[in-house]
Every structure is written in structure tokens, then in C-alpha cells.
Amino acid sequence: MKLLILRSWWTGPTDLDLLVQQTLNDGFDGIEGPIPQDKQQQQQLRQLLQDNDLVFIAEATTGSDSNDPKDWWIPRPDRSIDDHLGDLKWVIDHAQDMGALFVSTMCGYDAWSWQQNVDFFGRALELEHTSGCIVSFETHRSRSLYNPWTTRDLLKEYPSMKLTCDFSHWCVVCERLIDTEWSILELCAERAQHIQCRVGYPQHAQVSDPRAPEYQEALTAHERWWSLIWEKQRIRGMAQTTMMPEFLYDGYMQTLPYTNMPVADVWEITCWMAQRQRQRFANWQ
To answer: What residue ranges are annotated as transmembrane (predicted)?
Structure first.
């Protein structure tokens, strides 16, 4: 099994040429992020990816307001299931043109009822089936898969459903490291398509610095869960696995009072995590 490590679009410069150059300079295999709305930018990104032999995972954020400068990723209460599906369909329709490995989607709404979730995911999986484009559903706060138990029930309802596993969100939602839900972690690992390797802890979805000794327990726990995913993927016969270290500013990184200065460097941590997981994977292999 081969490991591909991607970097997040959100941790780099907005200029596409500079984004790709930074990605190459620091040894990443590709980029995970949204497909640009602008046709010219789409073509530019696709060409840069092809020319530099970089892979791409297309990110779909549904039911939100992209024009909101503050909370653009949060689902809006007035957005219907059809609205969410329309957002997902747009990304699916463009993903193959972009040469994407698959679509990873932050979708749904934590306030939906069980029946609304069943309706949405059933129709989303039908979109996947008819398009032939793999869709991987992310475990994320504010979204349908914001906790282990709803996720478990939806996975049982839909045997073909695949996951982008970002367990950092569940740590803060559950207010504990989630080894307590080991049977659910095993089920998630059996359906895992992709790993977003942020480290969370009981009070926040992102530790300030995973290299710090005070966060050793949280780092070790997450790596235990990621190794479980690798093992289940190997059993399933997957030829490659993908990871994306997603450490962010934007409220994720703790800051000093009054100055709002970040307490650590996000890109430095991202590169450290990428190197660490490459070594772990080599040793695991």
C-alpha cells in the first residue's frame, strides 16, 4: 500500500503558482481543497497539477454561504436538502475534469432529524453511483457526522458510504479522547477513504502544537486510530491511502490575549506532521 500526503489549500498562498511551488518545495504529494469557481482558475490549477505530477482531492462544502467572510463554512438553517445536494453535485460534476482522486465533502447539518439525514445521504450516494466519482463524507462539527453515534447509524444504514476521518472534531464534541467508542472507530476504519490528520483534545479540535509533551497523550491516541485505519484499508486491498495534515489558523490555532498572535507556526507543524506520518507508515509497512 502506498501513502500519499496532501496539503490543505487553506494553509498556503492564494496565488496558485506560489501554492503549487510551496507544495513541491516541502515534499507533499498533492493538494486538497475546493475547485475554483472561475473557469480560468480551474484550467490554471488543473494544468499546474498535471505539469508537476501532483494529486488533487476536491473539497465540497454544502449548505453554507461562500460570501460570508467570517463563517462561510457553517451550514445555514435556511438551506434545504436540495440546496446541499446541489452544492455537492456541482463539485462532483467538475471533479473528474480536474483529475481529482475523489470528492471529500463537509456536508449535512447537525440540526437535521434522522429522517432528513437518511434522505440526504441516500440521495448523495445516488449521485456518487450515477457519476462514477467517489464521494467521501467528512466527520466534522456542525455537520451531520458531528458525533460517533449518528455516524455509526448512518454507516449501518448505507453499507457503501465512505468516510473522510477527522477524529479531532469528535474529541471536542464528546469532550474526551474517543477510545471509549472503539467499536465505532473500527467501523469507521472499515469505511475510511481518507484521513485528515489534525490532533484534537477534549477541549479543542486542534492542539496548539502536537510536538509539545503536554499533548503526547492526544497525539498517541490519534496515531493509534490512524494505524487502525491503515490496517483496515490493507485488509480491504486498497492500493494507496491518503492523509492530509490539516492544522489551521482561523480560530483553530490558539492565540495570545490582546495581541491575537498565534502561539505556534501552522505550516511548520503541518510539515512536521507530514514527515512524522511518512516515517510511521514506513515503519508500519
So the answer is: none
